[in-house]
What does this fold into?
Amino acid sequence: MIKLEHVSRWYGDVIGVNDVSCEIGPGLTALLGMNGAGKSTLMRIITGQLKTTTGSVAIDGLEPFANPEVFKKLGYCPEIDNFYEHYSGRQFVEFLARLSGMSKSESKARTQVVLEHVGMADRADKKIAGYSKGMRQRIKLAQATVHDPNIILLDEPLNGLDPVGRREFIDVLGGLADQGKCIVVSSHILFEVEQMTRSILLLHRGRLLANGDLRVIRSLIDKHPHQVRIATPEPRRTAEFLVTLPNVVSLRFDRADKALQLEVREPDAFYDALARAVLEEKLPLESFTSPDNNLESVFKYLVNA
Amino acid sequence: MELAIFQQAIKEYTRFRRLLPWLALALACFGLAAVWNRLDSTATVQDGYANVSFILAYRIIALASAIFATAIVGQEVEQRTIVYLLTRPVERWKLLLFRYVAAVIVVAFLGFVGVSLTSLGSYHGLFSNPLLMNDLKAIFIGSMAYCALFLLISLMFNRAMIICLLFAFGWESSMSNMPGDLYRVSILSYLQTIAHHPSNEGARMLDFASGTLSTNSMSETSAWLTLAILVVATVALSLWRFSTSEFIPKEDSE
It folds into this structure.
């Protein structure tokens, strides 16, 4: 759906996005990066607000800059918190629905549908000036989806939402992704992203550091052995067996918690061997976890690299 | 879609708080016209109307054009709502053209109110004023010309409002009074040709204030033609510029 080939964008002497190539298909993809990583620039390039300095972008094969054909298929929820404050939420969404080519009656009906979808139908007639941050985020999502686009880009959509609102918002995005739409969500909050998807694009200082499934990316980072913590009532016997496995790099006792801290390479092979040992050697395991098999660790490893 | 763009722009431009200063200025036209003949007992009613309309009412359209035309895009960029407009399936030229039309209508309306109230102040009526119809025509084409020019300036330069205000007051006031053919580079001179107001015999200060100091030898046809060309050319350039340029709020483009 979205294809970027060697996309770079300069702001004078400063580079915003540097030689980014990737393809984004249906489902929910997170665009990750610290502040200033180039997420918003990339979003603006994909949504046809900015031109590329070099490289090309295609949305279903079409160049997006100022291209109305692209905007029929694309919805954008910007990071900014600005609206026509004297409008009500309903008027705002209706107006943008009409700009999407709908008749007055169509736009009214469609606005009602999306307002219900984002949980704003009962509050949509109040002026936007009086809305909370969460209500504003919902209205932005409503305007982005009002013309039923196949591609929806959301720039930091969870900013300012309370935990309940965040959960509801993530569920709405998940529902849209389940319909086969291509959803791209930018965020710098790893915890939020982890709740939404495991498919990530990681930007750092304008460059694309990683692209794909989080677990696959983690498994490819060989420089940092995976952390595994195993709780067992027989740590000595378990350790005796585990040190014989070729994937175990180091092993440490945690006497207080009756647990073992391991560093392993090729975690899939290690987990297979561990499962066999439990069955064949009757190793009494209570639990095992992988504390660095998460987005934060991947992010840290990649960015520090 | 086009209607929605137009309606939204009209709604934006005609918010009461936004119109209030202009209506106050129009009332000032009425007040000044009403007392003019008391201040200058030698002036005829027509002189009073002609002077007040050129000194005040015609300046309203230049000033209002500077405000409304620079807001067509500038306000959206400044309040960062431009992103909602530029990411919709609507051609950029349509977006700009219909917002321009809305701005022209609002500016022309304010100009009409200004000269109508001036007429009421001077003639105590509208239909007894032989100059009114020409003034309405001049104000309409003037609104189109000023808005087109200021729209182009707003798309070409940062701090466009300052440039437009300098043009509306500095350039227009001085150039229309310049000797020789220099008056031809002022929009106000063309509007004066279309308006056919009588000159102030011997009153140089009044001529200076109303921008009629120079000897204007233009024909009405050439005035219409020049303004029409100006409107078409500047609007076309604006549409091209808006369709091919990036419009990102300054704080977002760093």
